[in-house]
Design a protein that fits this description.
By secondary structure, this protein is of the alpha+beta class. It has one domain (20-218). Helix content is 39%, strand content 18%. The strands form three sheets. A three-stranded antiparallel beta sheet has the order 1-4-3. A three-stranded antiparallel beta sheet has the order 2-5-6, with no helix packed on it. Helix 2 crosses helix 4. The longest helix is centred in the first third of the chain and has 37 residues, at 15-51.
Length: 238
């Protein structure tokens, strides 16, 4: 027969205490996610400059943008229960974060030998189709029958958007004999613009302000918070 727990008040189960612990834990996680996102945005330029000394400037920009996106997505996931409320619906689904332009010119062939369009006879090879993998079609704007841009709507749009976005270009030759004209499909990866991620960060902050959720603010250049976790509180659920 199992022994009963000792008669001690500490062993008693208090639902109200559990609820307070859960709320405190959620707010702590929200605060930490916001602090990490703010830090990533603040340090993005320095990261770009640092990486740019070792790799191409475009690759450095992509990696810096991806770090910001990942941190804002983590913040958005922590805030998602609030975003799903009536007060958060606009920020979650309707607010426009920005647009991502789809490059219309495909990259070089894998061999790097041929340009996508022959230099000697431009027009011999054309882009027949552009496929954006795992991107909802209702977010894509077309021009001349080809995807031209992606509109990111709401924090949900940022959370659901793959990163990097894989793009496939289908090429076609205008001539039956296309010797030397490499028309094999080309692929490239497109990263979410850092300005879109930063806008998502601002929208989540605005929602917290709308709900009067008070989070401590970190001192600039310091890892310490101006207020302790005991100061985390929700003053209104709106």
């Amino acid at each position: 027969m199992a022994e009963s727990p000792p008669e001690d008040p500490e062993w008693e189960f208090h639902p109200s205490h559990t609820a307070e612990l859960l709320e405190r834990s959620r707010l702590e996680a929200l605060f930490e996610a916001r602090a990490m996102a703010a830090q990533a945005i603040r340090e993005s330029e320095a990261l770009y400059e640092s990486l740019g000394t070792h790799i191409s400037r475009q690759r450095a920009a992509d990696l810096a943008a991806e770090k910001v996106r990942a941190s804002v997505v983590a913040y958005g996931l922590e805030a998602e229960p609030l975003l799903r409320t009536e007060a958060g619906q606009y920020y979650y689904q309707a607010a426009k974060l920005g647009t991502i332009s789809v490059p219309q010119i495909p990259p070089l062939a894998a061999s790097q030998r041929y340009l996508w369009e022959p230099v000697d006879r431009p027009g011999d090879v054309s882009v027949r189709d552009i496929t954006l993998h795992n991107v909802p079609k209702d977010l894509v704007e077309e021009s001349d029958g080809l995807p031209a841009s992606i509109t990111v709507l709401g924090i949900q749009g940022l959370l659901d958007l793959p990163s990097p976005i894989t793009i496939t270009y289908e090429l076609a030759s205008e001539f039956f004999f296309s010797s030397g004209h490499d028309t094999s499909p080309r692929r490239r990866q497109l990263y979410v613009d850092q300005r879109i991620s930063a806008q998502g960060f601002r929208l989540i902050n605005q929602l917290l302000e709308d709900l009067s959720i008070m989070l401590p603010v970190r001192k600039r250049g310091s890892d310490e918070a101006e207020a302790s976790y005991d100061d985390l509180k929700i003053t209104s659920q709106g």
